[in-house]
Amino acid sequence: MKSFTISNYDVFSDEKDVIVTTYTVKVEGTVDGKDASGTYNSGSVWKKEGHDWLAIFHTNIKEEPATKPAG
């Protein structure tokens, strides 16, 4: 990994024991010899169990370059 940056971080919740986080991750690097560089829209759901916060769901979607409409 050459670089890793988190931005646009936001946290929200309407429950005392559940938190949802959303953020943007910009990465430069490779995974298993393949380029994984790009900007990813990411999110996680956290649940409090006792004194611990557990990550119960995570996703990230790589942003694709905008395409021009046909015609």
Structure description:
With 71 residues, the chain is mainly β. 0% of the residues lie in helices and 72% in strands. The protein has strands at residues 3-15, 18-28, 30-31, 34-35, 38-49, 52-62. The radius of gyration is 16 Å and the shape is extended.
What about the largest sheet? 4 strands, antiparallel
Rg over alpha carbons: 16 Å
Q: Poorly predicted ranges (pLDDT <50, ≥5 residues)?
A: none
Number of helical elements = 0
If strands are numbered along the chain, what order do they take across the biggest sheet? 1-2-5-6
Shape: extended
Oligomer: single chain
N to C succession of SSEs? EEEEEE
| Amino- and carboxy-terminal Cα gap | 40 Å
Helicity level, as a percent range? under 10%
Instruction: Determine the mean pLDDT.
Output: 94
Portion in strands: over 45%
**Count of distinct strands:** 6
Classification by helices and strands:
mainly beta
